[in-house]
Amino acid sequence: MSEILKRPIPLLITFVVGMLMVLEYFFTVPALTATYDTVNTWRVILYACVYLGTINLLLLHGRRVMRRDPGQWYYSAWLIVMIAAYAVLGLVWGVDSMNYRWMIDNVDVPLGATMYASLAFYMASGAYRVMKVRNLGTGLLLLSAFLVIIGNTPLFPATWEGFATIRNTIFDTFVVGSYRAIRFGVGLGGIALGIRTLVGLETGYMGRRE
Amino acid sequence: MAIIKSGYVLSFVAFILFAVVMWVYGEYSKRGRVPYVKRLPAFDAMEEAVGRAVEMGRPVVMVPGRGSFTDLFVAQTVAGLTVLNYVAGLCARYGVKLWAPMADHLVIPVARENVRDAYAAEGKLDELDVEETLPYVSGSQFAWASSVIGYYARERPAANIMVGAFWAESMMLAESAGRIGALQIGGTARLYQLPFFAAVCDYTLLGEEIFAASAYMTQDPIVITSLATTDVFRLVGWVIIIVGAILSTVGINVVYQFLSI
Amino acid sequence: MSLWDKLEAVPNWVLYILVLLAMAYPIFRPLGLPIVVGGPSQEAYKAVDATPEGTYAVFHIAYGAGGKPTLQPAAVAMSHHLFEKNLKVIYFCDNAVDLANIWGIFDEVSPDTRYGKEYGSDYVVLSLTGPFLTQAAVVLSNLLETIPTDARGQSLKGMPMFQGYTETEDINIVCQLTTSGDISEGWVYQAVSRYERRLVGGWLSMMTSSMIPYYQAGQIQGFIDGSKGAADYEVLTNKPGEAVKITDILSLTQVVYLLFIIIGNVGYFGKKYMGGGK
């Protein structure tokens, strides 16, 4: 029985549900649409698994605190304190409460915004390190990057509209054209992967490989 | 009442044809006529990356992305897990420490099962501490990114392999790992992040190349046929685009109308 | 170490200090640089402007904490516009951070005092129910049956704004602001392909090149392109705010990036052709 549970049953479930989704996309049969809507609503249940991650975090970091891992255990302790704080605030006062909003506005938002802002610095050092004319390809990359940055900077198009026109031309021709080509390939690759998954050739999602 | 939705007839026919062509190639491959798959330097470099880690005595970081099984990027997540399985096997074989930070609770059990299988195949299951090797870091984007960047700074991995679905943190990870001198292999089908990988990583998998991971690593003829099928349809797409563009330019919209069926 | 070596290997901390100065200077001394409103922002404005009064607008907020500095100004400007047009606005999101962002929008827009709007009669915030893909389909097709309450736990069916509501047909326009590509593309599939609603988007600048095909195909009526697009919308609605202030910072910072690229290449070529030090 365990051999059936490990492979054939999951494959059958994948095939049935996958085909349901595919058929619903193409056909207007009301029963299919109703089943699709029901399955979509059931998907919300999967989010109960969010506790899996929280439990894993508590186990991992709890272990570090117990072992007093040098250089790490106090960060782990603080993480556990913050998990508890958010849980208590959310459960007792609700996620819509002023207290919870205060935590979001004064902890999450500044931290998230800081990390996002740090992208500017990563881009600066990345551009400096990488954007060098080593060959024809990198030269063209540099030229187009230069023209697009100039077109994107509000200062330059305000001085001469041609900068915006050049930037839009590069975008509308080369950039969008190459994105469409890659997107086309990604779509085909996705379909191939999907069909492989449906017929059981791709089993990476099951965590098992033949 | 039409059964097939309006505007979806051609898509449905194309989908069926795709499956048929894949089946035909599969039959050919069973008779020994396996389509040729070109070398992808990025996949070949994965063994080089693990070898580098062996020499330097430093860990390998393999990031299978931040996708889930319930979003639009499940295909990329599966591709990332395939690569994780492969890299885990290499790390087990050569005795290199692996670190694969998890960002989604649904992916954790699957990823851990993949890595357990890889280690078990090499007979090294007892050397695997799955909690330390595949820790759940955070579901929050930048909390996860901070943790990974912190790991780079502390452990200074010799190799950084990133294959899967990435968001804004891709640039942060690639640049941080680049600064510590790690060998970097990056691949994603998320077009917004491709330029960052292409610019910063030593080897890049562009878009659909990550979906070829399974075919490339297993060299399974049946799986390789799916790659050949995408090539056939790409050719068909070229012809339609070129013919359609020419005809539309002269005012004949027959191709556009055909595609709207 | 020769001059070329130094130019090619400027320490990161020097680069970061220059970027920081470029960002800080306009905060203390605004440059007041002119803003040229872009086409997509104008089209987004026109799309909202063309929406008949009294119809429903769905407004999806999905930029989290990281995208807030860029897209919250756009959300505020667009909210001003939606309330000025007397539309019934259904706000929703799928996490607590964006919920806080939505309340923050109301703090800045003050729909009650400025426009005489009433929560529950003219606008509402839906409760958190699940991931975007599920939520989007539900909001557009089966809202009152699947999402019974708002974010405060009040029944939606009992609210004045949903008296006579008949699901998808009443929703005239979908507005969305996000830093996530799957959400911006997902709305095209859901709102446009599936339910044939008009769609106006807003996202980070780096996402524009990937979303432009949808705009060129007419599936997206118009879009807000990062901070610049947000500044455009503020200008169009005549409510200059944070985004307009940010354009000065944008200009100066990007000029600094261009200088870094030039310096890096000067050092590279100087070292290559004039020789570097040991």
Summarize the structure.
The complex is a heterotrimer of chains A (210), B (261) and C (278). Chain B has 261 residues and is of the alpha/beta class.
Q: Topology, please?
A:
The complex is a heterotrimer of chains A (210), B (261) and C (278).
Chain A: H1 2-6, H2 8-26, H3 30-42, H4 50-67, H5 73-93, H6 98-130, H7 136-152, H8 155-159, H9 162-198
Helix pairs in contact in A: 2-3, 4-5, 5-6, 7-9
Chain B: H1 9-30, H2 41-56, E1 60-65, H3 74-94, E2 98-99, H4 107-121, H5 130-133, H6 141-155, E3 159-165, H7 169-179, E4 183-188, H8 194-200, E5 203-206, H9 213-218, H10 221-249, H11 254-259
Parallel strand pairs in B: 1-2, 1-3, 3-4, 4-5
Chain C: H1 3-8, H2 12-28, H3 39-49, E1 56-62, H4 68-84, E2 88-92, H5 96-109, H6 111-115, E3 123-125, H7 132-141, H8 143-146, E4 171-178, H9 181-194, E5 198-203, H10 208-216, E6 222-225, H11 226-236, H12 242-274
Parallel strand pairs in C: 1-2, 1-4, 2-3, 4-5, 5-6
Distance between the termini of chain A: 19 Å
Taking pLDDT < 50 over at least 5 consecutive residues as the criterion, the unreliable ranges of chain A are none
What sort of overall outline of chain A do the alpha carbons produce when their principal axes are compared?
extended
Give the overall shape of chain C: elongated
Oligomer: heterotrimer
Detailed description of the structure:
The complex is a heterotrimer of chains A (210), B (261) and C (278). Chain A has 210 residues and is mostly helical. Chain A has three domains: 1-93, no CATH class; 94-127; 131-199, no CATH class. Chain A has nine helices and no strands. Chain A is extended, with a radius of gyration of 26 Å. The relative contact order of chain A is 0.06. The model of chain A has no long low-confidence stretch (mean pLDDT 84). With 261 residues, chain B is an alpha/beta fold. Chain B folds into two domains: 9-38; 41-217, Rossmann fold, CATH 3.40.50. In chain B, 58% of the residues lie in helices and 10% in strands. Chain B contains eleven helices and five strands; from the N terminus they run H-H-E-H-E-H-H-H-E-H-E-H-E-H-H-H. Chain B has helices spanning 9-30, 41-56, 74-94, 107-121, 130-133, 141-155, 169-179, 194-200, 213-218, 221-249, 254-259, and strands at 60-65, 98-99, 159-165, 183-188, 203-206. In chain B, helix 1 (9-30) runs antiparallel to helix 10, helix 3 packs parallel to helix 4 and helix 6 packs parallel to helix 7 (169-179). Chain B is globular. The mean pLDDT of chain B is 90. Chain C folds into two domains: 3-30 and 251-274; 39-240, MTH777-like (Rossmann fold, 3-Layer(aba) Sandwich), CATH 3.40.50.10160. Chain C has twelve helices and six strands. A six-stranded parallel sheet of chain C has the order 3-2-1-4-5-6, sandwiched between helices. In chain C, strand 5, helix 10 and strand 6 (222-225) form a beta-alpha-beta unit. The relative contact order of chain C is 0.20. Chains in contact: A-B, A-C, B-C. At the A-B interface, helix 2, helix 4, helix 6 and helix 9 of A face helix 1, helix 3, helix 4, helix 6 and helix 7 of B.
